[in-house]
Amino acid sequence: MTDSAATVLLAGCGDVGTALGLRLSERGVRAVGVRRRTDALPEPIEPVSLDLTDPGDAVLPAADAVVVTLTADGRDAAAYERTYLGALRGLRRALPADAAPRVVLVSSTGVLGGADGEVVTEATPPDPQRATAHVLLAAEELAAELFPDLVIVRPAGIYGPGRTSLIERVRKGAPVTHRRVTNRIHRDDLVTVLTAVLDAPEPPRLLHAVDHDAARLGDVVTHLAERLGVPGPPDNSPSGDGPLGKIIDGALVHSLVPRSRWRYPTFREGYDALVGTASSGERDVAGRASGAADGRDGETGRGASSDASTESRGA
Questions:
Q1: pTM of the model
Q2: Which residue from 34, 117, 187, 213 puts its CA 20 to 30 A from 109's CA?
Q3: What are the phi and psi torsion angles at 272 (to 5°)?
Q4: What is the pLDDT of residues 208-260, one digit of tens each?
Q5: DSSP letters along 168-181, please?
Q6: Are 296 and 309 in contact, with CB atoms under 8 Å apart?
Q7: b/e string for 248-272 if b means 16 or more Cβ within 10 A?
Q8: According to the model, what pLDDT value does residue 279 have?
């Protein structure tokens, strides 16, 4: 979105949407944040208070692009259906009748399922294991029906300001599954990926947003323990020698966004920055500023690819 006169709607404008809006605003792009409660949206994001699951007769401003970052208002499949499917239908109704913007749907690598050490790419067929992941896949399919110019971005486990649960688990010495392969992306780098998708004349229609180092969770927590000066957390891996979880091949996203543009190309740089913030006593301030709902970072040992992006509620 290189045109400074462009308008981007941020549908469900929570943590990632807000960070994206601020990044776009720095470039002179008009960023419009659409969510139920807009009092927390910072300037210069233009607020539009609207429940996308029930937009009524509201008509949204004309836009060159729409970025959809939603969070369910509950943890079960019914809540996901209400938020994701309902908000996508409501968004289509609320857009101007003649609108045909590029729509970027932020989904999740959780729709790929839980392979055991296998490498997966954008060509890998989805295999959702959780009921909520089935809904996310249905949301991708619905979005493809509703929006002709659609790009689906599936982030791996998102971490960053306000998403520091793994740091707290290491501080407390809580057991983690050391053998599990984790895939992740820092919130700020996800914003860079979304910006690149908006800028690209012909972006990939499906993109897995993941950093440059799929690592075993044991390596991540050992690194964190060293930085925090605490013992490494105990290992609760099941018996056996093989890895757990999938390895997400990031070749496509890395071709779109070269490594030089990544602020945190691996967990080492990203978590070092978070530990530094926490050590200076700014963690809570950073978390509140990010707008994250619950402080999760998608790295709690259940698999790095959460089955929903951990956005604050903004449908």
A1: 0.89
A2: 34
A3: -60, -40
A4: 999 999 999 999 999 999 999 999 999 999 987 777 899 999 999 999 999 99
A5: HHHHHT--B-TTBE
A6: no
A7: bbbebbbebbeeeebebbbbbbbbe
A8: 55
